[in-house]
Write a structure and sequence with these properties.
homodimer; 2 domains; mainly alpha; Tetracycline Repressor, domain 2
């Protein structure tokens, strides 16, 4: 990320952009607010006016990550002809996000506990998870059982989250000879069977 | 882990035991071969005769982790009345292993790339994965399509791996009010639908 001039007032977002780039270049442990300030061409003091410390910066990076993640999910789910298509698009978008932003993905999901103390991160994470939950609720449409909707959401989340981790950690490399992109698509293509279709008790509970 | 006397010849396994305990107390980054030597009451030099460096020790810990993991899977799968029961037992054992040995779990699956250079770790990991694959192959029994067996195995692996990570990273804590153990069981209970039962082309390809 080259030093880019910024307009008065958006130093915070310039630092976040630089932070996201630095994160993928190295690792969250090696990020330095001082170095980011240099990247965007301001003094360390100016940077510290926006982020009290490195934890505050990482928290803001994770929050931005959740907003981008949620936006990609919304885009993936939009205007799909049917549930099968939107389910596939949502799963592929999840895994694609993890593969394109491995360090950010680990940061977001590893630091989630911070959501309880940082309101901005809490809101961004909650909105992203709400989106995942709603997509599952839509799928479980015929069911009025909220527990079943939740379980289906967690199961579907586990599939894409688990596959993301297996990919990031190189575990699926052992299936050399397979085209990884095709493997992901083929595995996700089995997932429609995850749709919650448990028979409801007669009469339901409306 | 208190210092335990060891018999001549098993210093290596004493160091591994001490290493596994230290791993869960702190983190793989903080493990020191020197401290482990103190734990078991030998000189650092004696410890270095068994492990060239910290990486060699971590590799041995991961290998031991894969052996224990595979043994638990074998036990879980043994003598179950039907596929539904063995599938459930296998999934619960996977997640249970991750929850009881979080640092070891992260080490094993994070360091998998090392399997290519450390033969002991490579063998242990391959044996564990082979077990997972065979369990899925057994489930997909009616199918003669090896790609479908592989896809089913990866899908099922993703479910338990993803749920393990979500649990370790505290992500499922947001569903406060739910009993986590029951939630895991209930989510896995949806997974039987993952069984590979795609209709095969007439005549198959035997």
């Amino acid at each position: 990320m080259s030093a880019k001039p910024y307009h008065h007032g958006n130093l915070r977002s310039a630092l976040i952009e630089a932070g996201l780039a630095a994160l993928e270049r190295s690792d969250s442990k090696d990020i330095s607010l001082r170095a980011l300030a240099r990247d965007v061409g301001v003094s360390a003091n100016a940077a510290y006016r926006h982020f009290e410390d490195k934890d505050a910066l990482l928290s803001a990076l994770a929050a931005e990550g959740f907003r981008r993640f949620a936006a990609q999910q919304t885009e993936a789910l939009a205007a799909k002809p049917d549930l099968t298509a939107s389910r596939k698009a949502s799963g592929l978008a999840y895994i694609d996000f993890a593969r394109k932003n491995p360090a950010l993905f680990r940061l977001m999901f590893g630091q989630f506990l911070q959501a309880k103390t940082d309101p901005e991160l809490g809101l961004a994470a909650a909105a992203a998870f709400q989106g995942l939950l709603e997509a599952s609720a839509q799928e479980a449409g015929t069911s009025s059982d909220p527990d079943l909707v939740l379980r289906t959401a967690i199961l579907r989340w586990s599939v894409v989250h688990g596959m993301s981790h297996l990919l990031l950690d190189g575990q699926l490399d052992v299936f050399a000879g397979h085209n990884i992109d095709k493997l992901i698509e083929d595995v996700l293509a089995l997932a429609p069977r995850l749709t919650a279709t448990e028979p409801e008790p007669a009469g339901g509970r409306s």
